[in-house]
Amino acid sequence: QVQLVEFGGRLVQAGGSLRLSCAASVRTFSMYAVGWFRQAPGKERDVVAAISRSGDDTYVADSVKGRFTISRDNAENTVYLQMNSLKPEDTAVYYCACDVSSRGTVAVNLREYDYWGQGTQVTVSS
C-alpha cells in the first residue's frame, strides 16, 4: 500500500508560479514511475506530466510544455511539478499517482497507475 499526499496548491494570479509536491509513504517510491494529472470541473482527468523511476525520462503534455517541469528527489521520496506562466485554464485539482509495476518507465495512461493522492486545488485567476 502506497500513500501519496500532494502539497502546494493554492490561488495564484495568471502569470504566476507554483510548485506542487507529491510525498510518498514508502521508501520504495524510488522504484516507481510517477505521474501528475489534473481534472477540471466537468472534464476528464488528464495527464500533465510523468517521470520514470530514475528521473532520466520525462513526459510533459503539449498543453503545458515549456511551462511545467516534473522532477523527483528519490532521497526525499518526493516528486515535484514546477508550474510557471500559469493560465486560468490550468485551474483544476491536481493529482499525483504512482505505477508500482516493474516497468519503472514513463506512463501517460491513467489506467497504468495504481495509487493516487487525494488531490490539491490549483486556481489561477485572470
Uncertain parts? none
Mean pLDDT metric: 95
Q: Count the DSSP helices.
A: 0
Judging from the principal axes of the Cα atoms, what is the shape?
A: globular
The overall strand count is 11
Q: What is the chain-wise order of helices and strands?
A: EEEEEEEEEEE
Radius of gyration: 13 Å
Structure, explained:
The structure is a single chain. By secondary structure, the protein is mostly beta strands. The chain is 0% helix and 46% strand. It has no helices and 11 strands. It has strands at 4-7, 11-13, 18-24, 33-39, 46-51, 58-60, 68-73, 78-83, 92-99, 115-116, 120-125. The strands form 2 sheets. Strands 2, 4, 5, 6, 9, 10 and 11 form a 7-stranded mixed β-sheet that branches. A 4-stranded antiparallel β-sheet has the order 1-3-8-7, with no helix packed on it. Strand 4 and strand 5 (46-51) form a beta hairpin. It starts with a strand and ends with a strand. The model has no long low-confidence stretch (mean pLDDT 95).
What is this entry, summarized?
With 126 residues, this protein is mainly β. The chain contains no helices and 11 strands.
List the helices and strands and how they pair.
Elements: E1 4-7, E2 11-13, E3 18-24, E4 33-39, E5 46-51, E6 58-60, E7 68-73, E8 78-83, E9 92-99, E10 115-116, E11 120-125
Parallel strand pairs: 2-11
Antiparallel strand pairs: 1-3, 3-8, 4-5, 4-9, 5-6, 7-8, 9-10, 9-11
